[in-house]
Each structure stands twice: as C-alpha cells, then as structure tokens.
Design goal:
By secondary structure, this protein is of the alpha/beta class. The chain has twelve helices and seven strands. It folds into two domains: about 1-35; about 40-340, 3-Layer(aba) Sandwich (Rossmann fold). Helix 5 (about 110-125) packs across helix 6 (about 140-150). The longest helix has about 35 residues, at about 1-35.
C-alpha cells in the first residue's frame, strides 16, 4: 500500500502537467484563431507591394488619440491631387489623415481600385492602434467605401463613419460617361454609368449602408457630373443613411460636383458624424446639429476662399485631361463572380 500511495501523487503530478500543456496549447490555438480570421472577404489579387506603395498618410495616425480619417478621391485624379484641394481643411481639423493613389488616376476597373482602399483602411486602422476610421470620399470615392464594406465584412468594425459626397451610388445619367463600342471609355466610366453591370451587382445586395458603420451622403442640385440629384431617388442617396441636399441647408448655393467635397455643409456634416459616432448606425450626421453659420462661408474651415475657388476652377480641366489620357476599353469590364453573389454577413 505504501508503494501504491507513493505512485499516485506522481501520476497526479504528471496528469496535471499534461492537462496544463493541453490547456496552454488550446489557449494558443484560440488566440491564433482571431489573427488568422482577422480579414474576411475576397482575396486581394493586386500585389501587396503595389498596394503598399499607393498608401500615404500626410498626417500620421500613429499615436494619435483623434479619429483617423481616410480621404478617397474621385475619378480622374490621384489621391494626392484630391487631398491637396482640401488639405487646409484636414489640417485645421487636426485628425490624422491618409489617402490612396488608385491606378490610372482612379480611372481603372473599380474592382481593382477597391482593393487599394481595402488595404488602405486595414493599414490605417492598424497604424492608429485599432481606432475606427472615418472615411470621406468624393464621386467614385463615395462609391468605393460602400463597395469595400459590402464585400469585405472585416472592415465594418474598422470603419465607424462614411461620408459619401456626390457619390455615384446608383449611376449617373448626366452623360459624363457616354460609352459605347464605337466610343471607348475608361473602365470606371462604364462602371459608373446608370445601369452598369457592376452597379447592378452592388445594388442587388440587401443593405445599401452595410454593417454597423454610420453612413452620411451629401449632394448638390448643381452637380454637373452626377445626376439625378433630386426627385424620389437621387442617385447619390443611400437607404439607411442620412442623406443631405446642400440646397436644403443653404438655399440657392451653386456647389459643383468636385466642389461638393470641400463645401462647408459637407465638411460640417463629416465633423458632426465623427463627433457623434459610437452607436451602431446612429453616428451619422444630422442637419439639426450643423453650425448656425455653416452657410456664411462656401468652403470648409481652413480653406482660403479665393484659392479654393481658383483650385476648383482649374481642377475640372486637370481631371478631364487625365481621364482623356487614361487607357480606354470598348466594353464594361466583366463583373467578377465573387461580386455577383450575396455578400456574407
């Protein structure tokens, strides 16, 4: 009995060691699981080096306690060119800010460009130490964030707000992209025309403002590029979003398409959305909270009125020239099968 009694404690110690080892292994496996599953959605096909080279942060998000901002440019411009138009406003707001240079001055296949944004949002979220990113985009730059959050669900916990200014959400009928086999267009031109196959795929998804992210849209009746902006179904508006018409806030204002990005109403709405973020889908901007003097100045705080007016007047020609020199195709790029399916929740 003495021998048996002396062996039992030893066995118990061995069993305890084994259980501890198994428990540790299980913990390691459990801890590793989220890391392996931290990204979701289609695999990014663009080489990582190209994605990384296109991502820039003029106001570094590392170490900042303020909400990081991602600016998303529109068709016919680089991220840097778009950022320069609103640089003073971003600097005055004091939020860390990043942008992406999309292929071919943002004229390429939107299915390719969106991968650059997906990468950029993930990187900015990481660099900021896990702070949710607030996104502001103009034109195609208003469509791209919605496209990204629709098909890459991991972004929905990384992005707290999206403000889409003059977004091509349901396509434009303004004739900006009058494409045909006889009149080839930039790929993004085909895809942003009303009735395009890509927009049909995106708009067939059940949620126009995907996930818990708060969506705000801003549009102008004087938009010369993206129409219609009035009536029952404005092309830039989204179900589930706060949809703001600039002329409802500032009657008679003649805000152009590109000007919508830096309009005082747009930027005030963006700042309001950031300030009131925190609850799922309830952090979108509200017109009732906009500053009382929002109509007293045409542009966002931090922007010189004369310089911005001159910049906007010249930017149309710049965008047009770059779009004219970009590669053209005689038909809309084929919609990838992954975007024809209902996105996983």
């Amino acid at each position: 009995m003495h021998a048996v009694g002396s062996i039992a404690p030893a066995r118990r110690r061995l069993l305890a060691v084994a259980i501890a080892a198994l428990t540790a292994a299980a913990c390691v496996a459990y801890a590793a699981a989220p890391a392996a599953a931290k990204y979701s959605g289609p695999k990014l096909l663009t080489p990582r080096a190209d994605l990384a080279a296109a991502f820039h942060c003029p106001i570094d998000p590392a170490g900042s306690k303020k909400t990081p901002v991602m600016f998303v440019t529109g068709t016919g411009a680089t991220g840097q060119q778009g950022y320069l138009i609103g640089q003073g406003a971003f600097e005055a707001a004091g939020h860390p800010t990043c942008y992406v240079d999309f292929p071919d001055f943002t004229t390429a296949d939107i299915q390719v460009s969106v991968e650059y944004l997906v990468y950029g949002l993930r990187q900015e979220y990481k660099l900021s130490g896990g702070h949710q990113v607030a996104v502001i985009g103009i034109s195609q730059g208003g469509l791209l964030p919605r496209f990204a959050l629709t098909y890459w669900p991991d972004l929905r916990r990384k992005v707290g707000d999206v403000l889409a200014a003059a977004g091509t959400q349901h396509g434009t009928t303004a004739g900006s992209f009058d494409c045909s086999a006889a009149s080839p267009c930039i790929p993004a031109g085909w895809q942003q025309a009303k009735g395009s196959n890509l927009l049909r795929a995106i708009n067939s998804q059940p949620d126009e403002s995907p996930g818990d992210t708060s969506f705000t849209t801003v549009r102008s009746l004087a938009d010369e590029t993206v129409q219609p902006q009035d009536g029952k179904h404005p092309t830039s508006s989204l179900q589930g979003a706060t949809n703001i018409l600039i002329q409802d806030v500032c009657p008679g204002r003649e805000t152009t398409h590109i000007g919508t990005a830096v309009d005082s109403v747009t930027f005030a709405a963006f700042m309001d959305a950031i300030k009131h973020d925190g609850k799922a889908k309830k952090g979108a901007a509200r017109v009732s909270r906009l500053p009382g003097d929002v109509c007293d100045h045409p542009y966002a705080p931090g922007l010189d009125e004369a310089q911005t007016s001159a910049f906007l007047a010249g930017s149309g020609g710049l965008v047009g020239a770059q779009s004219d020199s970009a590669p053209k195709v005689g038909a809309e790029p084929k919609v990838r099968s992954v975007f024809k399916k209902l996105a996983r929740r």
